Amino acid sequence: MRKLWQAASQRPTWVGFAIALLLFGLHLATSKYFSLYYDSTSYWGYARDLEQKGHFSLYHLNTALRGYLYPLLNYPLTVLHRELLPDSQMALVKAEGALVAALLFGLVGPQFWQTVTGQQVGLGRRLAFIGLGFLFWRDYFNFLLADFPGILFLLAGSTLVLRGQSVGRVFVGAMLLVGSLYIRPIYLLALPCVLLWYGLRPGRGAARPGLRQWAAIVAGAVVVATPQLLINQHNFQSNNPLVLNQEPGSNYTVAGEDNLYLWHMNVGLRIQKYETNVGQEYANAAVVYADPTAPIVLAGRPNPEIGSLAEYAALVGQHPSEMTGLLCRHLFNGLDVLYAGPYLMHVYSPAIGLALLNYAVLFLALVVAVRQAPRLAPTDWLLVAALVLPTLASVPLVVECRFFISLHLLVYGLVCFGLPHPARWRQRVAPAWRLPLLVGFTGFILVCVTLSANTRANLQLPVMPAAAP
Fold first, then answer.
1. Would you say the pTM of this structure is higher than 0.85?
2. What does the radius of gyration of the chain's CA atoms come to, in whole angstroms?
3. Residue 70 in contact with residue 149, Cβ under 8 Å?
4. pLDDT (tens digit, 0 to 9) for every residue of the chain, 469 residues total?
5. Which of 52, 91, 231, 282 is the one with CA 20 to 30 A from 138?
6. How far apart are CA 330 and CA 407, in angstroms?
7. Measured distance CA(365)–CA(419) in Å, rounded
């Protein structure tokens, strides 16, 4: 075994990818999910409908709220399902899910860390990263959801661009990086951070990019953005090359105008966390955890709707303590992973062991972050911002844990790649710090358990019906 480990450790990149692919593939092949639900069904429909009456066209994309790229990537699955494998829809989706998971946790995540830190990531640390990804997110890959392909494109594109002196590599990286916007538009916030860091090239031993590299980035961006621009012009009479956050006739109307983000912000005042039920024990499909803040902060307003970001900021200024509490609850709830999948069979039975492990990981990440933050160069904070800003923009909204995936990956990276080897912990932690760390760890876990319990106390249907199985 020792020789086998030594041989595998010589090729950590591809061995890690292969192990992740095998692990997720075996799990998904034997998982309990046999159909798509809700959002995942919609994504399949967007991909399938790109071909109508035997004619393929991106103009068939009939929603302004979703980018074209994820349906386009899934289109081959719908063709295989229609032409060759009519009884294998879920097998095709799970195969894609296993590949996305293996690329994200087994290959791209560790490579991104190596690129931005200059530190080699060995096989053991890669396996730890894969393990956390598997434990916390394994059942998400049974379905078509844009969150994981979106962060995969962001990290893969960033890695290629940041490592690239080759014009071809930078061009492909730019396509992936900009492509993340057309899978998850929230990553528009990350794009300038990555490009600014790339332009400054702080202390990595590589020359700053020249005109050819910047031209490659522009060309890659144009290639990826042009289809969305054409769709918006043809279908929605808009010259905006980005994914539109409004769609006439949709249900996302605020103050008489269609605006998806503002709609989510308004609903986020009333709902602090949201899950989706597909089981029998809970009466509703929507698993809503109400937030008690809305009646307080909206009392006395002639119009209960928040019509702009400026109005939301004013609301924070008028009710600083209540709104700070709301935003902190949302942030914690987005990090509080109680289930390993997006569609719940047993709402009343969260995975307590999984939650406790998650709190421990969060504490370790916090310790590493506090220790390493003073050592970061000012420019390094740009890459931290690239992962954190999309999460912060999601905090005021109706929170689901998958919306915070970029921050979760940063947490796992800090723990798996930033901690010293366990064999050296006793040497690295001074005796005077051991008791305070233990007390801090215990207190942190207790606080997290309390906050999670408070959220669950606000479940819309908090008690299991007597007739439930």
1. yes
2. 23
3. yes
4. 777 877 777 888 999 999 999 999 999 999 989 999 999 999 999 999 999 988 999 999 989 889 999 999 999 999 999 999 999 999 999 999 999 999 999 999 999 999 999 889 999 999 999 999 999 999 999 999 999 999 999 999 999 999 877 899 999 999 999 999 999 999 999 999 999 999 887 555 566 788 899 999 999 999 999 999 999 999 999 999 999 887 776 778 777 778 888 999 999 999 999 999 998 888 899 999 999 888 888 887 888 888 889 989 999 999 999 999 999 999 999 999 999 999 999 998 888 999 999 999 999 999 999 998 888 888 889 999 999 999 999 999 999 999 999 999 999 999 999 988 766 666 666 677 677 888 989 999 999 999 999 999 999 887 655 554 4
5. 282
6. 14
7. 9
Task: Please tell me the distance from the alpha carbon of residue 184 to that of residue 358, in angstroms, as a whole number.
Answer: 25
